[in-house]
Write a structure and sequence with these properties.
Elements lengths: L74 E4 L2 E4 L13 H18 L3 H12 L6 E2 L3 E3 L2 E7 L6 E7 L23 E5 H4 L7 E7 L5 E7 L6 E7 L10 E4 L3 E3 L4 E7 L5 E8 L8 E5 L6 E6 L5 E7 L4 E7 L8 E4 L6 E7 L2 E7 L7 E6 L7 E4 L5 E8 L3 E8 L2 E8 L14 E2 L8 E4 L8 E7 L6 E6 L5 E6 L11 E9 L5 E9 L11 E5 L16 H4 L4 E5 L9 H5 L7 H16 L8 E6 L1 H12 L6 E5 L5 H5 L11 H4 L5 H10 L12 E7 L8 H13 L6 E6 L10 H18 L12
Helix pairs in contact: 2-12
């Protein structure tokens, strides 16, 4: 679990403005609560913010008064330094304190009141965004054994159906030209699980880890109904949907099959750290499950994945600097876990399997961009270097096939995919040469691995750029031919040739060149400093925010916005040193890099201060808080989503989830040097009595990564100290977590709300209708 939207070892998940992705980690349950309250200056009663957006100001002479949080002095002393937190009382881990809930409801009502005058525009904007979606659609089918598996969206429905069809000719070898038949003569579609039915009684619903057993007869899936990332795993009959055995409760979404009737899964400790891996035999009680490993070091968390060959499960124990691995032979699960790579501080290993060898991607202080090794199954310590370390190329990921190896790499901030042919099984593995790169068209883009068939010569990958909708390709690794299998449909006359995507570089105060990815509609911008601009940043956890497409963003681009991603230090876009130079005692580089990007965009005439908006989420919300305190004069408006803004107080409290595991990311403030360094940038500790731009802050009551109280305290302190009359809005989802609402249209409503806020701050909302400026 981490405050980032993507954690090492998890599937590719990230959040950009208007983009929603899930991550499988957990938090203690917190039931959604409702509490009536009386609002200042209006007599409206609020039962829950999950109801339709209130017209809180509709019957008043104007917006209701902003909530004023009471002050209750809480004194904290360390190293002779005293800090007073008047809003510490807003933290309530039970999420049931009437005063806390009342304050959050008042903040939500005030936000509705301020935005009431633009509600019609927001609704029109939502309709516009939704109108670009082909609501009845399916994902690119993936072949698993005798079936094609895929997900289906239905018109008007929030959630997906998990479906499959039989492959008509299972003896035919896979080809990039394969196509799942869908006509009247095709095998019938089978709906294995309909999330819309399961979600009917829940305000939040999310399914992940949809795992089919080797015989294709059973499915295990993990379900979260609160947004707190605590999952229940169910097993169902793939044909009938009938439940098989009892569910596994209070687990993570890490679950894999070890044969047809055995599951391996991971649970958490009291601070929500994945710490135990278990083996479960179907038909037995969860209380009888066997613990395969218990990680007692609270700096480490466990991860679980299956090899592409499906012959091994790998358990990784990982901190921010160190990862070591165990393996479980799926054919002999009773043998338990065996050590594959040892625990060596500062060494990170990621592993997979093919034939008689384990493949190991190893990073260390010396080989910081990783090298690729192979070792015999019988002697994991006897390694051969297949791809040596390269100073300018970082190995991001690897994917193995029976006859091929694929590396996903980064060079000079850009992604590349390289395919190597492997020696036949039984032949010696030596250093690989002559890899062939997959060609891409856009100057800046995003490409990620997708599930592929291990025994085939077909690599499946997903691709998009800031002007190219998400696409799925099958690539023949022998011929080099790529065939598109699915392009996300964008309705409403979208034409990617209308948009320009480019890469620019800003100079940081220490001379470092910071890459930026830029997109705009070429017939809508003037590039004379008069255009509105939205600058997004993250810069933590070695996360790479690659330039990708989002349909809702078109509602900004088509109104003349320029959209920019600042690939600042603390991320991993430029290799491992890029991350190392934006963490711990170098964290402030993240903030000054972002400011340098903003100043470059102003200097080069992309925008002015009066047209510059910024956005960041989670650890990117920390970025927002830090730069707002450092340079409040530089921006017109800011959106801080679930922001990690109470850094010092949180990192001093080991009882809070993530604290101990993230001392290697932020530092341990129980040491004096880190205490004062973190205090110097922690947003809550640095709010000052001055003018701030328009600010929107969001939170989720059930958030296990960033406690809702952090943004609540930040807003309360800003309300108390700031001198301007600009908007300061706080929106707390009372029935959701870190990733807010779960339905696909609900998320589009949030995009519409955020965009309406930005357009309101820029005075760009038309007087009537939704006509574009």
């Amino acid at each position: 679990m981490a405050r980032n939207p993507l954690r090492t070892g998890a599937s590719a998940i990230l959040y950009q403005p208007g983009v929603f992705f899930y991550l499988s980690r957990t938090k203690s349950p917190a039931p959604p609560l409702t509490l009536p309250l009386t609002l200042p200056r209006c007599s409206h009663t609020v039962s829950s913010y999950s109801t339709a957006r209130m017209s809180a100001g509709a019957n008043c002479s104007g917006p209701i008064a902003p909530p004023v949080a009471k002050k209750v002095e809480h004194r904290m002393e360390m190293f002779g330094d005293a800090r007073i937190d008047n809003y510490y009382w807003l933290r309530d881990d039970s999420r049931s304190n009437p005063d806390v809930l009342s304050h959050l409801h008042q903040e939500n009502a005030y936000t509705d009141s301020v935005m009431a005058g633009t509600k019609q525009f927001e609704d029109d904007l939502f309709a516009e965004i939704r109108g670009r979606i082909k609501e009845d659609d399916i994902s690119a089918p993936i072949r698993r054994g005798p079936y094609y598996y895929y997900e289906r969206n239905l018109e008007g429905k929030e959630y997906v159906q998990h479906c499959r069809r039989l492959v008509p000719d299972t003896d035919a070898p896979p080809s990039v030209y394969d196509k799942m038949p869908t006509g009247p003569e095709a095998p019938p579609e089978q709906v294995i699980l309909d999330e819309n039915i399961k979600a009917q009684n829940h305000s939040f619903y999310h399914v992940t880890a949809f795992q089919v057993n080797p015989s294709n007869k059973l499915v295990a899936y993990a379900e979260d109904t609160k947004g707190d990332e605590i999952y229940t795993v169910y097993v169902i009959d793939a044909e009938t949907g009938a439940a098989v055995g009892k569910p596994l409760a209070n687990v993570t979404s890490y679950v894999e099959w070890a044969g047809d009737d055995i599951l391996v899964y991971i649970t958490m400790d009291e601070i929500l750290r994945p710490d135990k891996v278990w083996l479960h035999k179907l038909g037995t009680e969860q209380s009888d499950d066997v613990c395969l490993y218990h990680e007692k070091d609270d700096m480490f968390s466990l991860d679980l994945e299956v090899s592409e060959s499906k012959k091994f499960l790998f358990v990784a124990s990982e901190s921010k600097n160190t990862t070591f691995a165990f393996y479980l032979d799926v054919s002999k699960p009773e043998d338990g876990l065996r050590v594959l790579t040892p625990r060596i501080y500062g060494v990170d290993t990621r592993v997979s399997h093919r034939g008689n060898h384990f493949f190991i991607r190893r990073r260390s202080d010396l080989f910081y961009n990783s090298e690729l090794l192979a070792s015999p199954l019988a002697d994991a310590s006897n390694t051969t270097v297949l791809i040596p370390h390269r100073e300018s190329v970082k190995i991001k990921d690897m994917q193995l096939f029976a006859d091929h190896l694929v590396l996903f790499e980064r060079e000079n901030g850009s992604l590349k995919v390289t395919v190597y042919r492997l020696p036949a099984l039984g032949e010696p593995l030596t250093q690989l040469q002559g890899g062939r790169s997959v060609d891409f068209v856009d100057p800046v883009f995003s490409v990620d691995r997708s599930e592929s068939q291990f025994s085939s010569n077909i690599l499946r990958f997903s691709y998009s750029s800031m002007r190219t909708p998400p696409s799925v390709y099958d690539h023949d690794m022998d011929t080099g031919i790529s065939v598109v299998k699915k392009i996300e449909t964008v309705l409403g006359g979208f034409d990617e040739s209308n948009y320009v995507s480019e890469r620019k570089w800003a100079t940081a105060p220490d001379g470092t060149q910071i890459p930026m990815s830029i997109v705009y509609r070429k017939n809508m911008v003037k590039l004379d400093a008069s255009d509105p601009l939205l600058l997004y940043g993250y810069g933590s956890y070695e996360m790479c925010i690659d330039p990708s497409f989002k349909g809702s963003r078109l509602s900004l681009l088509d109104r003349g916005f320029i959209y920019v991603i600042a690939h600042i230090r603390g991320g991993g876009e430029m290799g491992r040193p890029w991350y190392e130079n934006g963490k711990l005692l170098k964290k402030k580089n993240t903030f000054t890099d972002f400011i340098a990007c903003a100043e470059y965009l102003i200097e080069k005439g992309y925008c002015t201060k009066e047209k510059l908006c910024i956005n960041g989420r989670s650890a990117g919300g920390l970025l927002m808080g830090a730069v707002l305190n450092m340079r409040p004069d530089l921006f017109r408006a800011a959106v801080a989503g679930v922001p990690f803004v109470d850094v010092l107080t949180t990192m001093l409290d080991p009882s809070i989830p993530l604290t101990t595991s993230e001392w290697e990311e932020w530092g341990d403030p129980r040491t004096e040097e880190y205490y004062y360094y973190m205090k110097s940038y922690s947003p809550v500790d640095n709010v000052r009595a001055e003018n701030y731009p328009h600010i929107l802050v969001t939170a989720g009551l059930n958030d296990p990564r960033v406690l809702y109280s952090e943004p609540a305290k930040f807003v309360a302190k800003l309300r108390d100290l700031k001198k301007d009359d600009n908007m300061l809005l706080f929106k707390c989802e009372m029935g959701a977590g870190h990733f807010s609402k779960s339905g696909r249209f609900e998320r589009l409503q949030e995009d519409a709300f955020t965009f309406a806020f930005l357009l309101k701050a820029l005075n760009m909302i038309p007087n009537h209708g939704s006509a574009k400026i």
